[in-house]
Amino acid sequence: MADRFETAYLEGSPPWDIGRAQPELASLVEASRISGRVIDLGCGSGENAISFAMAGLEVVGVDGSPAAIRQARDKAGKRGVSIRFDVADVLDLGEHRKSFDTATDSGVFHVFDDEDRPRYEHSVRGVLRPGGHLFLLCFSERQPGDCGPRRVTQRELRETFTDGWHVDRIDAAHLATQIEGAQQVEAWLAAMTRL
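Given the sequence above, the corresponding structure tokens read:
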């Protein structure tokens, strides 16, 4: 799977890279819901992470694609933003144990199959301090058709984040894309607290 994403960044601008922060996450920053030390999971070319840092937050962006991380570092440098970007597997973030207050996921969870979802949950729980928050934005089953990533139901989110979590809310939302004819797709924005 990592090779597929690396290729997407090497070949140009992937459809999920919209050249700015995801509006749903930008709204959370404006409402001060994203706070403390933040890890942006699957940060891609860094737009969300950079916007968090520009809002005064301490941020680490992680992605499995070295090309995406190079692009993110380049963008941050050009914008004069001090931020750390690491090549890392979001399914195994052991080196970052319990060091973040907030984790954000914009379009990562929905790429994992049933076998990898528990690994993702365990990895994310491991990087958040008790009382830390996860904000997860993913494709929802309300998006028609089958083009793009797997659709996720509220039930699947709740079943994945059971032990060690409180699901605070799951709201209907939108994910901005560069997909022709679908610049906005149906999504869930889930807010969860690590117990």
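The chain is about 30% helix and 30% strand. Try to locate this feature in the token string yourself.
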